[in-house]
Amino acid sequence: MSIIIKSMGKGKLAIYDSDDKAKIGRWCQAPLIPDRCDRCFDPETLAHYEAEGYREEMAPDGTIWRYGTCHRCQEQDF
Fold it and tell me: Which of 20, 21, 43, 61 lies 20 to 30 Å from 36, alpha-carbon distance?
């Protein structure tokens, strides 16, 4: 998942994991269900919103991937 690395000056780095409280993440293989939205995030904390559903896509090798969706993006056509 996403990790933000910021320079603090004088050779110091700050590392922030925006999905540190996620148990599954923003995407996963079936039968697991993602617990974070794959697209939408809070602009203040940069953490992805909690998923309220998911969409499925099949990879060329036949693997089914599930991507989390929240109420902001559930109705959009991907």
Answer: 61
Considering 34-38, 43-47, 72-76, the range whose residues carry the highest mean pLDDT is: 34-38
The contacts of residue 47 (CB under 8 Å, 6+ apart) are: 18, 19, 21, 41
Q: 46 to each of 19, 31, 39, 62, 78, how far by Cα in Å? A: 9, 27, 11, 32, 22
b/e code 13-24 from CB counts within 10 Å (16+ = b): eeeeebbeebee
pTM across the whole model: 0.70
